[in-house]
Amino acid sequence: MKKIIVLLLMVTSAMTFAQDKNKRESLDVDGVCGMCKARIEKACFKTKGVKSAIWSVETHELKLIYDERKTDLKTIQQSVLNAGHDSEGLKAPDEAYASVHDCCKYRDEAIKDDHKKE
Q1: Three-state DSSP class for 71?
Q2: Residues 2-52: pLDDT tens digits?
Q3: What is the pLDDT of residues 77-103, one digit of tens each?
Protein backbone atom coordinates (compact mmCIF):
# COMPACT_ATOMS: atom_id res chain seq x y z
CA MET A 1 0.00 0.00 0.00
CA LYS A 2 2.85 2.41 0.82
CA LYS A 3 4.43 1.76 -2.54
CA ILE A 4 1.20 2.65 -4.34
CA ILE A 5 0.86 5.92 -2.41
CA VAL A 6 4.49 6.87 -3.08
CA LEU A 7 4.04 6.02 -6.75
CA LEU A 8 0.87 8.15 -6.97
CA LEU A 9 2.65 11.08 -5.31
CA MET A 10 5.54 10.81 -7.75
CA VAL A 11 3.23 10.70 -10.76
CA THR A 12 1.20 13.65 -9.46
CA SER A 13 4.29 15.77 -8.84
CA ALA A 14 5.72 14.90 -12.26
CA MET A 15 2.48 15.95 -13.94
CA THR A 16 2.48 19.22 -12.02
CA PHE A 17 5.96 20.13 -13.20
CA ALA A 18 5.22 19.07 -16.78
CA GLN A 19 2.45 21.67 -17.00
CA ASP A 20 4.75 24.68 -16.80
CA LYS A 21 3.20 26.79 -19.53
CA ASN A 22 4.84 30.14 -18.91
CA LYS A 23 7.75 31.04 -21.13
CA ARG A 24 10.26 33.84 -20.53
CA GLU A 25 11.83 35.68 -23.44
CA SER A 26 13.43 39.01 -24.18
CA LEU A 27 13.61 41.17 -27.30
CA ASP A 28 15.36 44.35 -28.31
CA VAL A 29 12.77 46.98 -29.22
CA ASP A 30 13.52 50.52 -30.41
CA GLY A 31 12.06 53.50 -28.58
CA VAL A 32 13.20 56.59 -26.68
CA CYS A 33 10.87 57.57 -23.84
CA GLY A 34 8.19 56.76 -21.33
CA MET A 35 5.47 57.16 -23.95
CA CYS A 36 7.23 54.51 -26.04
CA LYS A 37 7.41 52.27 -22.96
CA ALA A 38 3.66 52.57 -22.40
CA ARG A 39 2.89 51.91 -26.09
CA ILE A 40 5.18 48.87 -26.33
CA GLU A 41 3.91 47.28 -23.13
CA LYS A 42 0.27 47.98 -24.08
CA ALA A 43 0.80 46.31 -27.47
CA CYS A 44 2.16 43.24 -25.71
CA PHE A 45 -0.72 43.04 -23.24
CA LYS A 46 -3.22 43.23 -26.10
CA THR A 47 -1.82 39.88 -27.23
CA LYS A 48 -3.76 37.08 -25.57
CA GLY A 49 -1.54 35.05 -23.27
CA VAL A 50 0.96 37.77 -22.29
CA LYS A 51 1.33 37.82 -18.52
CA SER A 52 4.18 40.30 -18.11
CA ALA A 53 5.82 42.83 -20.41
CA ILE A 54 8.45 45.26 -19.15
CA TRP A 55 10.43 47.46 -21.55
CA SER A 56 13.50 49.39 -20.42
CA VAL A 57 14.05 52.88 -21.84
CA GLU A 58 17.79 52.64 -21.10
CA THR A 59 18.56 49.18 -22.51
CA HIS A 60 15.68 48.84 -25.03
CA GLU A 61 15.16 45.30 -23.72
CA LEU A 62 11.60 43.98 -23.57
CA LYS A 63 11.25 41.21 -20.99
CA LEU A 64 8.24 38.97 -21.49
CA ILE A 65 6.41 36.20 -19.69
CA TYR A 66 3.67 34.57 -21.72
CA ASP A 67 1.57 31.42 -21.90
CA GLU A 68 3.05 29.50 -24.81
CA ARG A 69 -0.20 27.57 -25.23
CA LYS A 70 -1.95 30.81 -26.21
CA THR A 71 0.69 32.80 -28.10
CA ASP A 72 4.29 32.80 -29.30
CA LEU A 73 7.16 35.24 -29.56
CA LYS A 74 6.52 36.05 -33.25
CA THR A 75 2.91 37.03 -32.52
CA ILE A 76 3.98 39.33 -29.69
CA GLN A 77 6.73 40.81 -31.83
CA GLN A 78 4.21 41.49 -34.62
CA SER A 79 2.01 43.37 -32.13
CA VAL A 80 5.00 45.56 -31.21
CA LEU A 81 5.76 46.19 -34.89
CA ASN A 82 2.12 47.12 -35.53
CA ALA A 83 2.37 49.62 -32.66
CA GLY A 84 5.16 51.37 -34.58
CA HIS A 85 8.34 50.06 -32.94
CA ASP A 86 11.18 48.21 -34.71
CA SER A 87 12.34 44.97 -33.12
CA GLU A 88 15.46 42.85 -33.67
CA GLY A 89 16.09 43.58 -37.32
CA LEU A 90 12.40 43.83 -38.22
CA LYS A 91 11.09 47.21 -39.25
CA ALA A 92 7.67 48.49 -38.20
CA PRO A 93 5.38 49.35 -41.11
CA ASP A 94 5.80 52.99 -42.18
CA GLU A 95 2.11 53.60 -41.50
CA ALA A 96 2.48 52.35 -37.90
CA TYR A 97 5.70 54.33 -37.35
CA ALA A 98 4.03 57.48 -38.65
CA SER A 99 1.29 57.09 -36.02
CA VAL A 100 3.64 57.38 -33.03
CA HIS A 101 3.90 60.73 -31.25
CA ASP A 102 6.44 63.19 -32.71
CA CYS A 103 8.70 62.95 -29.63
CA CYS A 104 8.81 59.16 -30.10
CA LYS A 105 10.31 59.14 -33.62
CA TYR A 106 13.26 56.95 -32.58
CA ARG A 107 14.58 56.70 -36.14
CA ASP A 108 15.38 60.45 -36.10
CA GLU A 109 18.86 61.07 -34.66
CA ALA A 110 17.93 64.58 -33.45
CA ILE A 111 15.08 63.18 -31.35
CA LYS A 112 17.36 60.47 -29.94
CA ASP A 113 19.86 63.18 -28.96
CA ASP A 114 17.11 65.25 -27.30
CA HIS A 115 16.14 62.30 -25.12
CA LYS A 116 19.75 61.62 -24.12
CA LYS A 117 19.97 65.14 -22.65
CA GLU A 118 17.05 64.50 -20.26
Answers
A1: coil
A2: 777 766 677 666 555 555 689 999 999 999 999 999 999 999 999 999 999
A3: 999 999 999 999 899 999 999 999 999
Q: Rounded CA gap, 109 and 115, in Å? A: 10
Whole-prediction pTM: 0.80
Contacts of 22 (CB under 8 A, 6+ apart): 51, 65, 66, 67, 68
**Residue 28: closest CA among 38, 43, 39, 40:** 40
Which residues lie below 8 Å from residue 46, measured CB to CB, with a gap of 6+?
79
Give the helix ranges, DSSP H, for 46-108.
Answer: 73-82, 94-98
**Rounded to an integer, what distance in angstroms lies between the CA atom of residue 118 and that of residue 49?**
35
Measure the CA–CA gap between 20 and 48, rounded to whole angstroms: 17
Cβ atoms of 54 and 13 within 8 Å: the answer is: no
Cβ atoms 35, 43 nearer than 8 A = no
